[in-house]
Amino acid sequence: MMKSDDTCGNQDIHISIHAGGPPIVNPDNTSLPESVDVRYATGINLTINTGDAELTPGVSVPSPRAGDWFVIAYRLKDDVDKIEQKGIGVDCHYQLQPQLLYHQVLDIPVLSELTDNVYSPADELTLLRYHTKFSSSVMSFSFYCSGTLDNKPLAGNCPLNVTVSADRLPLLDDTTESCLSQDRCSLVVSDALKQSWYYLLVQKSILDPIDGFNFTIRVEEEGCDYSRASVSIDIAAEDAGNYYLKGELTWPLMNGWYQEDIAHREGSFRGVATCAPLYTLVTLHTSGARRFVKLVENDTDIYPVERNGPFVVTFDIDPVQDVGGFLAVGVDATSLPNPAVTFCMKKDGPPVEDGVILRCDESDIIESNLTSSGKDHWYFPNIPAGTWYLGLEVKCYNASDQDPFSCGEDPEIVMAITVNDQCIDNCGSNGQCYIKSVAGLQLYYCKCYYGYAGLTCSDDTAAWSRAYFLTRVLLLTLSNAIFLVAAIFAFYRHHFAESVAFVATMIFSTLYHACDSSRVCVMDYDTLQFCDFYASFLSILLVLIAMAKLNPTLRSTAHITGAFFVAFSAKYDRFSLWAVLVPLIAGLIVVAISWGGRMYHRKELYPSKKRWFFFIVPGALLALVGLVFTALETEENYYITHSLWHLFIGASVLFLLPPRPKEEKHHEPERELLDVSTSLRDYLDADTEPYSFMTGE
Q1: Which long-range contacts link 268-272 to residues 24+ away (Cβ below 8 Å)?
Q2: Which residue, of 195, 274, 355, 397, is most buried by count of CB atoms within 10 Å of its CB?
Q3: Is 252's pLDDT higher than 50?
């Protein structure tokens, strides 16, 4: 952690870390719409102080999941909302230099399915792993121990504590299964992830030495072979035991321990692996979004409603294209009587138990009563990359007693799933969506207006009232009318270039502040801001050049030189103090040289005491008061102090602009032509020597 200057104060740096996608941070604890769910983008948060930089603070993530990790570091906005001029005082910057250190466990033994895996551990802890199939639904790890303790065999006693974890190494404080006082024990994973690594941490539960100690692990799986799903077909009655027909897809039965192990579960095993329909979705690319549709049935979004269970869809979130966007899920069940939906999502495995029961953590279940409109939608920002499974169950209710009943013959619903690479709802009517490119990724965020805040600019805790909003807009825009007065005054005094500059300042300042405070923008924000700053800086320079009273040649040269430089500075860094100081100082130098030269030749004060006392000093004081108001600007009073700046700086022009230039002597063309003819005639009549071209005489 580094500071740009030792005089900069210590600051709290907030860091958020998340696997699979950028974390969503909410430092102000703003509210979110009910349709926005950030549960899949909540990261690990910590705070460090720049005063502890020498201690090299860090965060430890035990047993991290494999894949991409994202880190966001930020500072909270200062409590003081003062608007400071860039370049005044110390400009403090804070830099974070992250370092990644990790420890990797190598050569972890791999378990084989349906075989006895025998191990004779030399240490107290043994780490093993197993890779599941695409079809995995339920998985069992069975243990058997052998050896002698105190010269007695370990009959009926297996001194092991077993911990299992998916996609990461298990921790000692994870849920542990004890095999003590059991000859054989089993650890059952009823909602196994698909095509994932499971890690087992096997620990001896007693410290006494055991002679010839070893343990045997047998892994068995049961599930549905979704990879062989196909359109349903007619099969003979004698083959019915090998297939289960559900909806429009079929799955071959996988034989294994599943039949005996879950016989005690609700709806005992009937010899057929009952599984919810699974639809694999593919993507269609549209403008700003990727739409997920079914692989069959002409890419339709219509899904048949299961009578006694959920259906499952699976889709992939791309680690590059979809990072920084949001997942949108919309359900339309208007064709069903009094429908209600329950769904949840799970990464790498269907959120179902025993094949047909929707199973999720209680905090992950989303329920919606669709009886009012029959439609609903949800947004999931920054969802991690990977393969996701969405299980959805639909029920129809009797309006009188709220009891579920049949949804009708062949009921169907429409479900639209998209990944959008933009802001949720385009930030609504109270914000604007912006894009930021970081490390090759495109991240989207909302800039909120009118006092609204939050991820989608929907938090109205500090929203402006209509009267306050109108006051801000009208003050910032109508205060520019002073520049119209200055333009008319300059035109009256024959300062035409200055008059054009004042008109441009009025127009661009009005349009810029209308866009900034009310989002009524006639063109893009950056262009309006540039024009406002450029016209303002140029007007200051032109007033000073007019006060210097240069001859026409020098004046036009100063105008064009100043115009080029002001354009460059306003484009390069319009917020810099030097962007306004350079034209101001250059103009004052020109005035000082011009006035100093006149005083030197006239040997008297220039301009006159009267002009100094009644015009120059009052005009300079008005400009100085305007600068004082800019120094007092805060986010809260900006619309007042900046409007006063408009009025005072515009009024100062009425005092500082010099009088109309003295009129040049008028020439009469006819009289001049007559004088030339008379002179020529007199010359020809004169008794003189012929003109010699050689001598020039």
Answers
A1: 271/241, 272/241, 272/244
A2: 355
A3: no
